[in-house]
Amino acid sequence: MMSRPSDTLHPISEYAHAPILILIIGFMMLQPLSTDLYLASLPSLSTVFGVPASTVQLTLSMFVIGFGGAQLVIGPLSDRYGRRPVLLWGLSLYVAASLLCASAQSIDVLIVARFLQALGCCSAIIIARAIVRDAYAPADSARVIARASSWLSLAPLTGPILGSYLQVAFGWRAAFVALSILSGIVLFAVVLRLPETNVHKNPRATELRGLLANYRHVLGAREFWAHVLPGALSYGAIFAFISGSSLVLIKVLGVPTAWFGYCFAFGVSGYLIGTIVCRKLLPRFGPTATLRIGSTMSLAAGALFLGAVALGFIHWSVVVLAMFMTMMAHGLNFPVSQSGSVTPFPQQAGTAAGLMGALVMVVAFGVGTVVGATFDGTLLPLASIACALGVAIFASVRLVAHTEAA
Predict the structure, then answer these.
(1) SUPFAM superfamilies from the entry (predicted)?
(2) CA-based nearest residue to 27, from 102, 80, 113, 90
(3) Please, what is the end-to-end C-alpha distance for the chain in angstroms?
């Protein structure tokens, strides 16, 4: 895709020799692929290991728990020791854990391996956010994340479909073999081409006193909450569809399982469009106005979904359209939120990125739990949750004052 001159982004001169943006895209793709690539294999895991579906679901929930908790540790580690060594260890763990997943002979081993895989995946995501803060000018950081997110959207677009073909052709282990190969390539690229970008290493970042001081500094900043709240709630909104769309589309509305991946991919295409729109809006209107536009779209998506269901429009297209609009709004909200939560903290970038990621995962875990607990065989619970989150996103942007990035 050709970019106009106004959309051309380059790292600061110290890192002009390194393919920083390409590496960031590779890091960020690991998270959606870690989940989406084996979604089609979940039913077969229950049969292969002879366990109930609730046990198989632990391979998802343990990944979320591991991913969320590790962010509180990995961020400070990268602030103290640098981005590169933490990333090398994390990616090495991811490769080993993916191979362990592929060779697991019991569901217990698979669950443990998924937890370890989450720790490695977490390092890639946290370091990606911190590197954006290190290697790009603050004014460009939101646009960098938006561009990376445009490419990132290819993972949830193609992951479930590719995973379906791997499952049919080779079985459930194939998805984890593919993840091992992909992460091995990313690790090799880091060894060859990624320089150390943390020039403000903080030797006290992992000391208890220093750690608490950094947490207080970040959590006490209005700029942090002004971006984290809408970002976490926006992720919660799309996670409601990630965790609930298969239930309502397949079980309630009778969409064939073979077509679910395509319905999901259409919804995720909204995220791709949203990130492209975000890249166009940022240089013209700035981060604050872009986030206001995105949060308004979130509110509209949730309200229209609930309104349609309340009026009796019970059709698969209503769910897919609501998912598309929610994903598109997220494509505007999340790049601005990720950038804005880290940019004010040059010496605590890893800590800020870790705190944001942990809060996002807490919201996602909570939303997923509520979606599962409230499912009653109708569309109303999912529509109500989507609307409530849309209202919360809209309100969070307007109740917490924003400061424009310099």
Answers:
(1) MFS general substrate transporter
(2) 90
(3) 29
Residue 373 lies in a domain: yes
Q: Are residues 110 and 61 in contact, defined by beta-carbon separation less than 8 angstroms?
A: no
Give CA separation, 71 vs 199, 234, 280, 294, 360, in Å.
21, 19, 31, 26, 10
Quote the number of domains for the chain: 1
Residue (of 279, 268, 274) closest to 239 by Cα position? 268
Check if the beta carbon of residue 316 is closer than 8 Å to that of residue 253: yes
Determine, yes or no, domain membership for 146.
Answer: yes
Taking the CA atoms of 120, 121, 123 and 128 in sequence, report the sign of the dihedral they define.
positive
Angle at 84 between CA 78 and CA 88, to 5 degrees: 105
CATH number at residue 251: 1.20.1250.20
Number of CB atoms found within 10 A of residue 35's CB: 22
Residue 144 is encoded by which pair of tokens? 């960098």
| Reported pTM | 0.75
List Cα–Cα distances, 305 to 150, 171, 185, 274, 320, in angstroms.
25, 36, 41, 19, 10
> How many angstroms separate the CA atoms of 97 and 110, rounded?
9
For residue 122, the enclosing domain spans 19-193+203-399
From the CB of residue 362, how many other CB atoms can be counted at a distance below 10 Å? 16
Helices (H), 51-204: 53-56, 58-81, 83-103, 107-135, 141-152, 154-170, 173-193
| 6: in domain | no
Domain-embedded: residue 10: no
Residues 74, 83: contact at Cβ < 8 Å?
no
If residue 354 lies in a helix (H) or strand (E), which one and from where to where? helix 349-374
Tens digit of pLDDT for each residue in 68-81?
888 888 888 988 89
Alpha-carbon distance 257 to 316, whole Å? 13
Query: Is the pLDDT higher at 324 or at 40?
Result: 324
Among candidate residues 31, 259, 42, 52, the one with its CA nearest the CA of residue 127: 31
The pLDDT tens digits for 121-160 are 999 988 988 888 788 877 777 778 778 877 877 888 888 7
Distances (CA, A) of 362 to 14, 91, 232, 399: 36, 23, 9, 21
